[in-house]
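Worked Example 4.2. Consider the chain below.
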Amino acid sequence: MADQQSLFGDLAMGDASQAQWVAFGAAPAPARQDDRAQAAERAAELRHLLDYHAYRYYALDAPEITDAAFDKLLVELQQIEAAYPDLVTPSSYTQRVGGFVDAEQFTPVTHMARMYSMDDAMNLEELDEWLDRTEAALGAGNVAYTCELKIDGLGVAITYQDGAFVRAATRGDGTTGEDVSLNVRTIKDVPMHLSEAALEHMAADRSTPIEVRGEVYMPKGSFMRLNDEADAEGRDPFANPRNAAAGSLRQKDPKVTAKRDLATFIYAIADTAPLHVDSQHEFLDWLRRAGFSVNPNVSRCTTPAAVHQFCADALAHRSDLDYDIDGVVVKVDSFTQQGDLGFTARAPRWAIAFKFPPEEKTTVLREIRIQVGRTGVLTPVAEFDPVTVAGSTIARATLHNIDEIRRKDVRVGDTIIVHKAGDVIPEVVGPVLDKRWPDSVEWDMPTECPACGSPVVHEDGEVAYRCVSLDCPAQLKERLIHWVSRGCMDVDGVGEELVDKLVEAGLVHDVADFYQLDVDTVAALDTGRTYATSNAKKGVAAGDPIPVGPTIAAKVIDQLNQSKQQPLGRVLFALGIRHVGKSVGEVLAQRFLTIDALVQASEEDIAGCEGIGPKIAASVKQFLAVPENLEVLQRLRDAGLSLEEDLGAAAARVAQQTGVDADLAAEHPLEGLTFVLTGALELRTRDEAGAALKALGAKVTGSVSKKTSYLVAGPKAGSKLTKAEGLGVPVLDEAQLEQILTTGKVPQE
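Applying the procedure from the previous section yields the following structure tokens:
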């Protein structure tokens, strides 16, 4: 093996890896389709399945089958079309690059050159067949190969002009991708400017636009943190790092992407000519000099045996990496020889992807246990006999939801197949049906919450089952913290730490218990810290626990008492009703005025409120139908909270908060008008400006449409301004906005 640049080292494969490697070399003979009619029928079925699963994978980031299962379907279709060439259609998945472009969410981008797919070698036999063909075409012993790890991420194309970042796009369908420039800019290892040394190497072509390609991926450690956060917030976790990377890169808000800790490996380019390099190996060196992140595990191999060894090393050490790989990409190193081999309809002839076998084990499913998340979501979890997979022992795996359980048809007592999705997340693949007990029964979601016994709620159109009881202990801390937060009851001094202490001491079981606390009780709480030194005057010794103390306790009780004056809209938001945010709470309060009227209102009455709709209405009624929740509301009323809306006070409060004239606000002069705010406003934040417009009766939305009355554009306005101009929507500057907020009058056309 020549020119090795690998972190794998010279470690030999372990016995298990060796056995897997040897076994993987023996490929079963493909099934023969002797009957052309049957072959045509199966080919049509395979095309449908491939299109469906490609859409799930590329467009929804929610695959239903593994990569290995998808590849198996594709290989079967390729075999049928090879046996019956007349069955090949232009739309067949074998004739195109996989992918999907969401033109509604992202601007389409045409790539400088087509981004091809890669043919797969599913075992050593198929890899050797490709090596033999390549050696025969180019001359045995006359070919060098560059072997690279196949990164399991999302394909990306990044364009540079004069060495400066221009844009980035997803792979899409291979010809057209989605503009994700703002999101890619947040990825730390993507250079905004190429190094001078790399540009000098381009000589006279340094100003030529270039489009480099690679993979955006999420490190395993970052993936685990992301799913921990999702679990803490009651959101569904990502199935694997690849899906997480794809979902993170295709966010509407770049701030979300920036928090996801994405990274890249670059390994290709649309046109090598401007770089003045002759081989893949030289090209990778140029990428490193330019400032790109290039995977260090790469080798230039001069023999097929060396290619075998690299693949074996990669398989043996894949679990040592902090990112997912699902194989090895083997490329003819010479660009001249690549040109001689050319392309098929969907893939280069000069490269192949050697796919690793998935590691799967069988075990017995003993129980499907319900886990109640912090937001009340009930998640079924499979508990099975411990089994070692991909280097670690696993005994449980999430089943996500009832739809997933039914799709996989897993039942308690089944012998099941398990693996690690992305080599990280334990996953139940499915049952071994010929080992199923005759008396097995289908599993179903419980009708009562296992944590508190309250009825479980299932909304139409959603897969999630929820507990909406305020008394549910599984949701307690999250509900309490939400209640005292700044946007809700705004209880200064009560944070997560104090809430934890109150719960641990058994003093708070629901939000109404906050208002039963007194100074002495709070003051005596143990903070969990100890005195570092003794103080005779205070009567404390080193190591004594530090209590909250009377000063802080008095402030907490005072803040709680002040929170009793919060308006009804805030209270509704603070209760944590699903889909009810601050603005929805205010709408409900202004429409029904009292909590009693809201309890008595029909679902249709609630849905009739502006901006509410049937989904929110159903959630509100479900919450208010739980007897335990009504008991908490009564205790809040008994504690002195006003569960009624004072419209006059509300108008005055809004006017004071937004800086608009109270008398003007009472007239609602902007009622019926819809505003959109964009760009960087200087006199107010966009939230402040939006609140002031709402105080005068206007509707404020986040997207421009034909229904938009005015767009307010500050400096650095982007796509919204372009769209507004295209639709003929009047555009206002910040000075005109301030005039409207002062007078209540819009400019005359």
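DSSP finds 28 helices and 25 strands in the chain. The chain has four domains: 108-355, 361-369+383-435, 473-638, 659-743. Compare this with Example 4.1 before moving on.
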